[in-house]
DNA sequence: GATCCACAGGAAATTAAGGGTC
DNA sequence: GACCCTTAATTTCCTGTGGATC
């Protein structure tokens, strides 16, 4: 107990040291990705375009629907929120009815039903709709009634952010069609849609009727380059920190890293914020390139660990199957059939989980691909081997091992040798055939 | 050039769960 | 309590495909 006491962390001393360390922040929120600053560097053109389209609101006109494209972290949402704030202020200033802004993030609200229900709830928060159960046509009728209850000549802007995340093509087309035509049922109020998409060719997938109505005006947000990101970070640094404690070299490095990864300003801000936290926790007085590198590595590592630990049991089984094939085939790639076979073996050894079909496993492997844990590509082996997906492990073996070894269900199988590797005399391509042999 | 393998992947159907209405 | 609604996950059915082999 004595030794434990001697080596234990003294929280009082830590707090005392923390208080003695220099104060870094004036406004910590300025480094938050959700923070909308007063000035948005290098987005004048886009601000101007949206302002020109929405300005007719000031003369009680109904603007055209707008569709905005651009990769992640190119300032789409920030620009729309900025314009909405300024337009509302101007309406107040000249004494006309202020527009209603409803912001819906389709990454979180993914179905047509929920988009309509959230829209209704935003307009009538007193009588919220249930999360499921109400027929869509009833919601629509009630929504139109509520919109008509707004003040005369009202404009209701509906911002559908990350609109490409809406699931199910049919439901997506339905809700977008209904919203794009809702003005036909409105007398006093008008609805304007602002769709924001991270995918440039999202439009190609839409019903042509929806497309022509939703995309009346189109605006493209290009990715930021390193110089532009440097300007963005500089303005945030000026707002966030108490004095000039950030090295210019650190900012240039942070900008260069983010520019290389799709020109994503969010990524640049996240790294900078993490680096600032490291400086603060260690009681240092300057933020240098070293903290930027550490912050980037920490962020990448934390992201993967958290992701693996939070995977559902079935996804863990698939990842483990890829890992075991990779481990015992000494780094060689595996086919869908082999991974599926190993997966079936593992599922037979545990209770409480049903074996999913190969069709479903194909989709789940693609999901692991998307987050960078595995890497796969299609390859054909001709008449003998057919066409299959070749899957390899992209994450490090040690990372998988570290994050799965404590798993109550799969932790004991990290050294399990799959059947087709034990029986190297059998050359099996087909997952279905392999499943029947095990 | 035709054949055939082992899937890939789209679309519709099914199932289970959660909820509302009458 | 019967019936209707939704979502999400999964299955089923189906057609398509690259390329080695015949």
Please characterize this protein's 3D structure.
The chain has 438 residues and is α/β, with parallel strands linked by helices. It contains 19 helices and eight strands. The chain has helices at residues 2-7, 11-20, 44-54, 76-94, 112-123, 136-149, 169-180, 208-214, 226-240, 248-260, 265-281, 289-310, 313-328, 336-348, 358-370, 382-385, 397-404, 419-422, 431-437, and strands spanning 66-70, 100-105, 155-161, 190-197, 217-221, 334-335, 374-380, 387-393. It has a five-stranded parallel β-sheet with strand order 2-3-4-1-5, sandwiched between helices. α7 (169-180) links the parallel β3 and β4. α9 crosses α10, α11 (265-281) packs across α12 and α14 runs parallel beside α19. The structure holds a DNA duplex (22 and 22 nucleotides).
């Amino acid at each position: 107990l004595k030794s434990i006491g001697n080596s234990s962390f003294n929280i009082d001393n830590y707090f005392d040291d923390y208080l003695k360390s220099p104060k870094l922040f004036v406004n910590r929120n300025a480094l938050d990705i959700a923070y909308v600053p007063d000035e948005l560097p290098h987005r004048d053109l886009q601000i101007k375009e949206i302002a020109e389209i929405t300005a007719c609101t000031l003369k009680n006109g109904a603007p055209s629907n707008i569709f905005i494209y651009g990769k992640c972290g190119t300032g789409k949402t920030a620009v729309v929120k900025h314009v909405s704030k300024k337009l509302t202020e101007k309406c107040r200033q000249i004494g006309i009815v202020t527009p209603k802004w409803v912001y819906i993030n389709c990454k979180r609200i993914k179905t047509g039903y929920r988009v309509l229900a959230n829209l209704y709830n935003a307009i009538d928060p007193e009588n919220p709709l249930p999360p499921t159960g109400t027929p869509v046509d009833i919601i629509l009728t009630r929504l139109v009634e509520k919109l008509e209850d707004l003040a005369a000549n009202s404009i209701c802007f509906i911002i559908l952010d990350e609109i490409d995340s809406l699931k199910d093509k049919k439901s997506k087309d339905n809700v977008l069609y209904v919203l794009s035509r809702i003005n036909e049922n409105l007398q006093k109020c008008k609805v304007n849609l602002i769709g924001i998409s991270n995918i440039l060719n999202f439009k190609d997938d839409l019903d042509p009727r929806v497309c022509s109505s939703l995309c009346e005006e189109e605006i493209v947000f290009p990715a930021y380059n390193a110089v532009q990101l440097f300007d963005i970070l500089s303005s945030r640094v000026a707002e966030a920190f108490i004095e000039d404690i950030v090295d210019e070299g650190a900012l240039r490095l942070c900008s260069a890293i983010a520019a290389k990864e799709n020109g994503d300003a969010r990524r640049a801000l996240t790294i900078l914020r993490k680096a600032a936290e490291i400086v603060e926790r260690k009681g240092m007085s300057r933020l240098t390139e070293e903290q930027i590198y550490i912050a980037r590595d920490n962020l990448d590592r934390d992201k993967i660990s958290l992701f693996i630990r939070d995977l559902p049991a079935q996804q863990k089984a698939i990842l483990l199957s890829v890992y075991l094939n990779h481990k015992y085939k000494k780094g060689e790639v595996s086919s869908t059939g082999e991974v599926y076979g190993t997966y079936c073996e593992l599922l037979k050894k545990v209770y409480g989980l049903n074996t999913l079909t190969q069709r479903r496993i194909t989709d789940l492997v693609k999901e692991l691909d998307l987050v960078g844990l595995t890497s796969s590509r299609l390859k054909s082996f001709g008449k003998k081997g057919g066409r299959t997906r070749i899957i390899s492990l992209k994450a490090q073996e040690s990372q998988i091992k570290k994050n799965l070894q404590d798993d109550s269900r799969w932790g004991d199988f990290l050294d399990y040798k799959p059947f087709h590797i034990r029986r190297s005399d059998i050359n099996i391509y087909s997952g279905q055939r392999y499943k029947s042999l095990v």
